[in-house]
């Protein structure tokens, strides 16, 4: 494979002191007028810049430099005390000069070096050889540090590893350039491996000689001598004179936190401060170490929210912010009642080992806002971590400090943001976590959410343990099924179901309208939305499980109302009345997510009830018969389980016809070639379709619906248009229970279904959870067998 890019015209700088690679962020000192003009040109036009290595220290211009180098960006420009200009350069890619455009200023057309990468199998072999050679060199040479070895082991990019090794070996410029321009990776790995072999032998010999001539030097005198020498060198280079003040500030901040952090944290941070004191301030490693200390010392070890936990406050806050949600509120109150009791009885260690709550339900039903209410009631900061699509395990665990741009994980960042060690952390969309070659984030969450382990959670960037036991973790999800079983075991799921139209009406009056009036700077006396208009808004414009779209449509109405008020000169006493007649003036178009039940009984068309991750729905299953030989065709992008339900339904109806329990009209009976009557199911092909065809569908709960559709076709009896049903069917005709009953019945109620057929076991077990509004608005009938279903669904 080859990696190529188009050529581009860029300013060119010649660097005589350093040999740069694409992964470097490096300070470069400039003094000549031509170089300063080039930098000004690049920054003014927001261009990248190319830096080419010089052939010798005195060379300048295109004749004195090599023809390949690094293209990258200028991150920062600053003036040194001695008048020199310093730029901070970040390399991006290798490129070669293909045409010189101008000598002054130095401009050239460059093209990216095309890298030839062997096949995957050969890449793995070369990678193994190179890592083995580097590991061997690391044992005998100081050039290969432990951090560098970890970086190389964690990487699988051969080209990048080669560049890192060449940079660490501090090669002579000509040799470094010869390695730099090799585009065949296989050839490059072989050349570097041969060079490393020579270095290993040289290092062994050097080590042997040093051991013979090494003499003891007093440790204290040696350190003092080296530090004084380093300070003098830094003064000569014009380095920052505030260096000692910065180091002292780090030490003071560490001393303040010492009593609140673990011993391992104190040792790690103190070690990095001492390392920083020995580094050159302009080096990239010094910049990384300063970044680490800023992050580590921002962790609020010493800060906790000390507000007393009160169940009454939690209950009051939940009722103030949310309408309905009786069972979720009860479970939340029980959860915090237990914590309050344990805290009062001085069992704080047990109070911090409670269950992790996970709110499950369709979008817009109040999962995240419940967490917000808990945060307010506890008087703790709220930290929201969006997990949707997250696939890099380092996003949670933290990045190792082996490359530029490493940072702590989102959990530690959340603590720093909250400025307290015991915030409320909301793990949003925990069911949307992804898994890739970067790792499995769910494995990290197993530790984060385990009360037995999270008191010693290790962030890879900080490299010490963090106590997460005091955090109140709350997760949210649309579905439970996608969450891996070990992670499900860490949490207790609280189901939040769809709102009924009446509940939405109350939420609109008590929460949505007052809140949006305030957001839009309007007064309640200026806007009047009639009850009939709100009902139309709920039923015809915002059919959904939650109230998110209802809030959006309310905002649309108020925006147009604000415009009308301004057009009328903001007159006193001017009032806008919104009724069903003029609602269309404020909103674009009606939305029918759940169509009302048809008003005509038809043969082969049955209302089925389905569950989706965004709430319940009404599926109209259609069946037709075609003259044929008894074949079955199923369409509508159905899953395997649903296809099997169709086959079971056909076999079941065949047995009902054969046993005489389902009568077939004479006009449907056809004769064979010999004039003998044929079985009706052998005389016709069946075609079953479940709209919409573009939406994938699966699940066993359409069994009785499909059976009714087939029975209607073969009996020539129409199906009642105001009946909907859900239930799994067996070959013997028994109706089995299903899940998601509350969502399904709410969907039927919204579609103005008058009768719902549900399995008898669901009737006994789940009917208590159904809102009274739904139970009073339709007849719910329990069915045990297919005969019960057909008795209520088919017209006589």
From TrEMBL:
Domain named Lon N-terminal: residues: 10-200
Database matches in SUPFAM superfamilies: P-loop containing nucleoside triphosphate hydrolases, PUA domain-like, Ribosomal protein S5 domain 2-like
Catalytic reactions on record: Hydrolysis of proteins in presence of ATP
EC top class named in words: hydrolase
E.C. code: 3.4.21.53
Listed InterPro entries: AAA+_ATPase, ATPase_AAA_core, Lon_bac, Lon_bac/euk-typ, Lon_lid, Lon_proteolytic, Lon_Prtase, Lon_prtase_N
CDD domains, per the entry: RecA-like_Lon (cd19500)
Active site per database record: 701, 744
Induction details: By heat shock.
Record GO terms (molecular function): serine-type endopeptidase activity
Keyword Nucleus: no
Superkingdom of origin organism: Bacteria
Predominant cellular place of this UniProt entry's protein: cytoplasm
Residues that bind ATP: 361-368
Record Pfam families: AAA, Lon_C, Lon_lid, LON_substr_bdg
Subcellular location field: Cytoplasm
ATP-binding is among the record's keywords: yes
Keywords annotated in UniProt: ATP-binding, Cytoplasm, Hydrolase, Nucleotide-binding, Protease, Serine protease, Stress response
Family statement: Belongs to the peptidase S16 family.
PANTHER family documented for this protein: ATP DEPENDENT LON PROTEASE FAMILY MEMBER
HAMAP family per UniProt: lon_bact
Function, in words: ATP-dependent serine protease that mediates the selective degradation of mutant and abnormal proteins as well as certain short-lived regulatory proteins. Required for cellular homeostasis and for survival from DNA damage and developmental changes induced by stress. Degrades polypeptides processively to yield small peptide fragments that are 5 to 10 amino acids long. Binds to DNA in a double-stranded, site-specific manner.
The name this protein goes by in its record: Lon protease
Organism: Campylobacter magnus
Taxonomic lineage: Bacteria, Pseudomonadati, Campylobacterota, Epsilonproteobacteria, Campylobacterales
